[in-house]
Design brief:
alpha/beta, TIM Barrel, 9 helices, 8 strands, about 40% helix, about 20% strand, binds zinc ion
Length: about 230
């Protein structure tokens, strides 16, 4: 199992950026891609069924893949999984797939990456119903402050990507959040994670090395059983 070293930049969620010195990454594997969590220096993996690629016919076979992935030593977290109102199948099917993946994340004690588009009520409802112990990391967050604080109050973490942090409203939002709930990611883009750290450090009036320390600590809080 690869883990970040103090001083590493952490890209908490991406899709195959490839390993780079000084950057630790969690690379997301989506079940339909049929990729394997092979050992690669400087990165580890998350795995799950992305709601965009879910169908009535592939739910069961893809849950089998998630169960297999969940036990793999190079898989540190489950997901991305969740809800999407713009793209993907009907909500009951999305919910079924999501709830199953929450159960798997709880069974194997690995955190869950969340994909959520315009379905926050549903997300909060499922969280309330299943009361997961594993932390949820909401990736690609770009909502409002009230929503951000509500998710944080439920124990969730928020991860921000380039498209959001360059928006004028992002600085004030990130400034209003507790530092211990923040992650940064490149997601599918080819933006360098160091560019994102630089922008967010400036917005928070911190040095980049302080931000590196904060996010490394946050990683340690979520993956504490792996860090000892
Ligand atoms: Zn993603």
């Amino acid at each position: 199992m690869n883990l970040p070293s103090p001083g590493d930049y952490i890209d908490i969620h991406n899709h195959g950026a490839g390993s780079r010195t000084g950057i630790f990454q969690i690379e997301n594997l989506m079940t339909h891609e049929n990729r394997k969590p092979d050992f690669e220096t400087g990165l580890t993996y998350s795995g799950g069924i992305h709601p965009w690629f879910l169908t009535q016919n592939n739910l069961e076979p893809h849950l089998t893949i998630v169960r297999e992935l969940s036990l793999h030593k190079n898989i540190i977290a489950l997901g991305e999984a969740g809800f999407d109102k713009i793209k993907g199948p009907d909500q009951p099917l999305q919910r079924k797939a999501f709830e199953e993946q929450i159960r798997i994340s709880e069974e194997v004690s690995k955190p869950l990456f969340i994909h959520c588009v315009r379905s926050w009520d549903e997300l909060l409802e499922v969280h309330k119903k299943l009361r997961p112990e594993q932390p949820w990391i909401v990736h690609g967050f770009r909502g409002k402050k009230e929503l951000a604080l509500q998710l944080i109050s439920k124990g969730m973490y928020l991860s921000f990507w380039f498209d959001f942090i360059v928006r004028p409203e992002s600085a004030r939002l990130i400034q209003s959040l507790p530092h211990e709930r923040i992650f940064l990611e490149t997601d599918g883009s080819d933006i360098d994670i160091r560019t994102i750290y630089k922008k967010v450090a400036a917005d928070l009036n911190l040095s980049v090395s302080s931000l590196i320390y904060i996010i490394y600590s946050n990683f340690g809080a979520i993956f504490k059983n792996k860090m000892v």
